[in-house]
């Protein structure tokens, strides 16, 4: 983390600012430059109902009934006992807090420490968990000290605990405590332990928590027990220590260098669709089996094929790729199998084909569906016999080649249509791996955005600080007909178009007509409003009240003067600037309109 000046605020200062910080819709008392403000954080939360996803910036969220969480909590306690349940819930809360700390650090890397520390309680409240009221807190990022005391109002966890077990003797806000530890630890970069010294579950009217560094507490062995100390002390547990690019999970067989290679080549993802493809890849790579990759254009079939080679026993041998669609039919045969001198006019020298060049290694045939029936016959023979014949040659040549093919068409349908040999199809499709389109693995979009942004910033020598919330929202909601290749191109364009040392916005990525789908964010009053970046605004709920129709969604009131001003502006705009025509629309004379426009400006 960037070194930051010591920051302390007194009790009086905090209580002066607290109410305002927590009140919805009010501008933060911190300076306008002190991001993230509450509005910045609410902007990160958006709903994509058509797609079945809710996002907090790049993290997928779910909206759960607290009663469902209560049931889960109760069954957990009843089945594994109070102690273990407490540990599980504390660690799950810790994970949320650490993820939120990571979000804040990534989106606002240069924010002042006070704002970033305050963003935790705000996010915790925004997520509907608990209202946090700071009593006092003091920290020094450079020296690694922290002391904080907070009140928790109407904790959702207590509601559920009291509902199930009534008032007891032990505090019960375990998940929330975990969150506080995860967040502050992630921010400070060293363990901070929170304890709940008063709790509604023990009959108090409010919960009170105190956080200090492990050193300052003294004996924290019990606290660490709930955090699973071993994991807790590893650097990864701090969440923030690591950036967002989680290397591709290549199953158990992958070595760290494979993972590095994978992430270096853009094979990054966390989605189950991506992981399942990686898992299959790691299973089949060490074998000799022919592999067929299927999936739309741009999903990364060549990337997977070369990764398969890289983690196979043939990795020291050549990897040769040929795109069958890019090669004219007449050249295909010589390209694949080579040619003997004098085979035809122009064949002035003998030349080895791709099969021979791939000897001992892997031959990747992309867009195999475009291969002619003649070419298919020869390929089948090469696969069956393990030997090829050059064009114009008379002796068979032994080749040891593992063939990996890819197609973006349905080969089975091609077989049905008589355009693809069935025997070749079965030969190739020994082990098919389907690569999902990007729109079906949206969870990977943030990783890929981050990955490509860094890659192209390096390549083009640009400084780019990230994406606006609007850009993130738009890309997460975009369908990517061109898949990863399209995302890659968009990000490259974004890196080039954005101001140096600036952030990438929607306009740097997509043309307006490309922006698609509806997303909804929270407006300043906490109501859902359609995102700015969308094209089709959803119809507002029908209302007969004129006032409702005049107010913007989320706007609670509008002054008469503002309504008048807007009506005049709209009329003038609709009339194309013709004041007489605009005045007629409003039942005014031209002079009246001109006067009012002047008076109002
Ligand atoms: Zn409590």
Q: Main attributes?
A:
601 residues; Helicase, Ruva Protein, domain 3; Muramoyl-pentapeptide Carboxypeptidase, domain 2; binds zinc ion; 4 domains; 15% strand; alpha/beta; 45% helix
Explain what this protein looks like in three dimensions:
The protein has 26 helices and 21 strands. With 601 residues, the chain is an alpha/beta fold. Strands 1-5-6-8-7 form a five-stranded antiparallel beta sheet. Strand 3 and strand 4 form a beta hairpin. Helix 4 crosses helix 5 (113-126). The protein is globular. The two termini are 47 Å apart. The model is unreliable at 1-33, 229-256 and 533-543 (pLDDT under 50). The structure holds zinc ion. Zinc ion (ZN) binds at residues 155, 158, 171-173, 196, 199-201, 207.
Shape annotation: globular
> Looking across the biggest beta sheet, what order are the strands in?
1-5-6-8-7
Uncertain segments are 1-33, 229-256, 533-543
The CATH fourth-level homologous superfamily of the largest domain: Trafficking protein particle complex subunit 3
What can be said about this structure in brief?
By secondary structure, the protein is of the alpha/beta class.
List the SSEs and their pairings.
Layout (H helix, E strand, L loop, with lengths): L6 E3 L1 H12 L15 H7 E4 L4 E4 L2 E3 L4 H15 L1 H26 L5 H14 L4 E10 L4 E9 L2 H10 L8 H15 L3 E7 L8 E7 H4 L3 H6 L2 H5 L22 H9 L7 H13 L6 E4 L6 H10 L8 E5 L5 H9 E2 L11 E2 L1 H4 L4 E5 L6 H13 L1 E2 L8 E2 L3 E6 L3 H6 L5 H7 L2 E4 L10 H16 L3 E4 L1 H9 L5 H15 L4 E3 L1 H4 L10 E3 L5 E3 L15 H5 L9 H15 L4 H8 L3 H11 L1
Parallel strand pairs: 9-16, 9-17, 10-13, 13-16, 18-19
Antiparallel strand pairs: 1-5, 2-3, 2-20, 3-4, 5-6, 6-8, 7-8, 11-12, 14-15, 20-21
The structure holds zinc ion.
